[in-house]
Design goal:
This protein has 295 residues and is an alpha/beta fold. It folds into two domains: 154 residues, HUPs (Rossmann fold, 3-Layer(aba) Sandwich), CATH 3.40.50.620; 130 residues, HUPs (Rossmann fold, 3-Layer(aba) Sandwich). Helices cover 42% and strands 20% of the residues. The chain has eight helices and ten strands. Helix 3 packs parallel to helix 4 and helix 7 runs parallel beside helix 8. The longest helix has 26 residues. It is elongated. It starts with a strand and ends in a 6-residue tail after the last strand. About 7% of the residues have low confidence.
């Protein structure tokens, strides 16, 4: 799944520099066409609702329009500073509306392959409340998302992939392989075995465990042969999210890569509980991989 188009989302918060520097690094890494977007929340949530009296007078509407104009002018001054920090030409967009929805619609319309967003220093909006801007983007994006966790991503020497044998983790591994090929970074493939309910069927459990080990070792050999980078396999048993976070601390990767599960009946798919907990609590940047429809 090649990254041909990137969208870097800036909100002039405390880590905007890290988001821009990460966007610049990834833009160069993938040789991708890159856009920057800043979305201004409207001064008034709505000015008029069909079937009801206008909520603002004509003078009030004119005032809101003038405020929006001033906000856009100020934002343009700021965003140009960040455009100039990229090593390649980038286009920028300043929009007004619901931040998450505007970003998602822009990404869909422009066939973006990778969205870059920032978390704040306390974590991804600390507890990543339901309905938050960040959660909406992560959950509803039809494409891959990188979450910057404070420090900028300026080099990749080590990748950690959470692998569970499902199609979404295979897509994540493919993305990790592409990055490793470009950066010559080491790859740590971590599988957390949560098949406790099989344990009372000793023969079945051991047979499944043996098969998993073979698949992972074959993956290791194939990747090392294909792209010439060291690959480590780690199989742990226990709580998925807690152990995966422990592995992140142990291996200290530059980038964590997880897959995003798909469903058949809903248009935009929500991130699984384990992956969301990793995104929320990891101190390292996280890449949530989802292949765009039709690829």
């Amino acid at each position: 799944m090649p990254v041909k188009k990137m969208l870097v989302c800036v909100d002039f918060c405390d880590i905007v520099d890290s988001v821009v520097d990460t966007g610049n690094y990834l833009s160069n890494l993938f040789d991708a066409e890159t856009q920057i977007i800043h979305v201004i929340e409207p001064p008034s949530p709505f000015l008029y609702e069909e079937g009801f009296e206008p909520l603002l007078t004509v003078d009030g509407v004119e005032l809101v329009v003038e405020v929006e104009k001033l906000l856009k002018e100020k934002a343009e001054e700021e965003i140009k500073k960040y455009v100039n920090r990229f090593n390649r030409p980038v286009n920028y967009f300043i929009e007004i509306g619901d931040i998450a929805e505007v970003i998602l619609e822009h990404a869909d319309k422009n066939e973006i392959d990778l969205i870059v967003i920032g978390s704040h220093k306390k974590g991804l909006i600390d507890k990543l409340l339901i309905g938050s801007t960040a959660e909406k983007i992560i959950n509803k994006a039809k494409t891959s998302v990188v979450v910057v966790k404070g420090e900028p991503l300026k080099e990749i020497n080590r990748l950690l992939i959470g692998y569970d044998f499902l199609p979404n983790s295979m897509e994540a591994l493919d993305m990790a392989k592409d990055i490793a090929k470009r950066t010559k970074s080491e790859i740590d493939i971590v599988h957390i075995d949560s098949d406790e309910w099989f344990e009372h069927l000793t023969h079945v459990y051991e047979e499944k465990k043996k098969k998993k080990k073979k698949i992972l070792n074959d993956l290791k050999e194939n990747i090392e042969k294909e792209i010439g980078v060291p690959v480590r396999i780690e199989i742990e048993k226990g709580n998925l999210d807690e152990l995966l976070l422990e592995e992140i601390k142990k291996y200290n990767p530059d980038l964590v890569v997880v897959g995003k599960r798909k469903g058949k009946k809903i248009k935009r798919i929500f991130l699984g509980r384990t992956a969301m907990k990793v995104v929320r609590n990891s101190e390292k940047p996280v890449l949530i991989v989802r292949k765009r429809e039709g690829e």
